[in-house]
Amino acid sequence: MAPRRPAGADALPAVPVQEPVARQPGKGELYAALDLGTNSCRMLIARPQGSQFQVVDSFSKPVQLGLGLEASGRLSRSSMARTVHALQVCRRKLESHGVTRMRLVATEACRRARNSRDFLRVIRRETGLPLEVIAPEEEARLAVISCAPLVNLGTEHLLVVDIGGGSTELVWIDITGVEPRERPRAIMKLSGGFGDRGTGAAKVVDWISVPLGVATLRDQFADVEDDAGRFALMSWYFEEKLAGFSPYAHGAPPANFQIIGTSGTVTTVAASFLGLRRYDRTKVDGLVMTTEQIDRVIREYLTLGPEGRRNDPRIGRERHALIMSGAAILQTLMRVWPTTRLSVADRGLREGLLYSQMVKDGVVTPEGLEGVA
Fold it and tell me: Within a 10 A sphere around the Cβ of 83, how many other Cβ atoms?
């Protein structure tokens, strides 16, 4: 399904990055993936290892690239300056590790901003990094394949949700025709596209990119002073945007259904549920939460209020201003579909970028991929 969104006057088509050296990767060669979103700039550098990869370095910085974009339609000078500074740090990391195989992408903010083409020229001039703006379908596809290891072997219908800063991607996948042990591998094969792949393959029933993420949804209701009222309005407004998504419009299958959520919102809610004062990925990635547990955490956030959330170590000062808009999206999704459980994924676009590069080069093989029994 083609996503409905305001036309981005200066959005750029996704153009494959030209590798600086036309050669086969050596064993153990490093790969990099960078995701420049509406709120954050994040990068992973990793080494292929069997059917997975080993992260050797990472970077994450809240740059608020999309701040003010809803009102002006343009990226502000201060937002661009913060982002360029973060990208210069990334460039130094890439150089220090000698990384030559990389994919560096930008998403919703750069798709929508009227001055994104000028901004990409500034990035190239100031950092030398070959950043590309990817389309919503590719963003959704990369999020899906990163979640393949978390697919339950008994799952027949899968909804992957990626709550970003500027958009939220939802992909509904039918894997009833795939042998249970082949289901994670079938999801990984969607890296080639969402089209029909024939008998015995995962089938994408529908997908949508809603042009509302944690930053853009927050900005829509920034003038509402009442905390609980603002949360209710955000939830209602997001649900309205799902009207054209066929599983929402026509009803979803009641059995063997799994939702996998990937985003800072989902992992923050999970960390809050676990009471983690210091984030621990090994405890969060793969955690299964019930709707009741999610609702309890969100009620705690509302009770805390803006000041309490700002000082809550489980949320963190970098996320407190965005957590309620993300929570509104998450709670809406859990309410409208027939499941009481959510699989938490601390993985997403960057991991999908790494997997797709490594599988293409033949240095990672999805044959060894196992799902969750």
Answer: 26
The pLDDT value recorded for residue 45 is 97
Which helix (DSSP H) or strand (DSSP E) does residue 251 occupy? none
What lies within 8 Å, CB to CB, of 27 at 6+ separation is 363
Q: What is the pLDDT of residues 311-365, one digit of tens each?
A: 999 998 778 999 999 999 999 999 888 788 999 999 999 999 999 899 888 887 7
Whole-angstrom distance, CA of residue 241 vs CA of residue 212:
9
Sign of the C-alpha dihedral computed for residues 335, 336, 342 and 344 taken in this order: negative
- Tokens for 310? 């700002």
pTM of model > 0.90: no
SS3 162: strand
Please tell me the CATH superfamily of domain 143-349, with its number: Exopolyphosphatase. Domain 2 (3.30.420.150)
Q: Let me know: does 217 contact 39? Beta carbons within 8 Å.
A: no
For residues 364 and 101, give the distance between their C-alpha atoms in angstroms, rounded to a whole number.
14
Beta pairing partners, 75: none
β-pair type (52-62, 40-49): antiparallel
Q: Is the dihedral of CA 237, 238, 243, 247 positive or negative?
A: negative
pLDDT at 7: 39
Q: DSSP labels for 56-72? A: EEEEEEE--TTTTHHHH
User: What is the per-residue pLDDT across 17-51, written as a single tens digit (0 to 9) for each?
Assistant: 333 334 455 557 999 999 999 999 999 999 998 77
Do 32 and 151 form a contact (C-beta atoms < 8 A)?
no
pLDDT of the residue at 253:
62
What is the per-residue pLDDT across 118-169, written as a single tens digit (0 to 9) for each?
Answer: 999 999 999 999 999 999 999 999 999 999 989 999 999 999 999 999 999 9
CA distances (Å), origin 102, targets 49, 145, 174, 364: 17, 18, 31, 15
Q: Rounded to whole angstroms, how far apart are CA atoms 187 and 252?
A: 19
List the beta strands (DSSP E) in 108-193: 132-133, 157-163, 168-174
Residue 353 is classified by DSSP as: H
pLDDT reading at 105 higher than 80 = yes
Report how far apart, in Å, the C-alpha atoms of 4 and of each of 163, 184, 243, 247 are: 16, 29, 11, 16
For the chain, first and last CA: distance in Å?
31
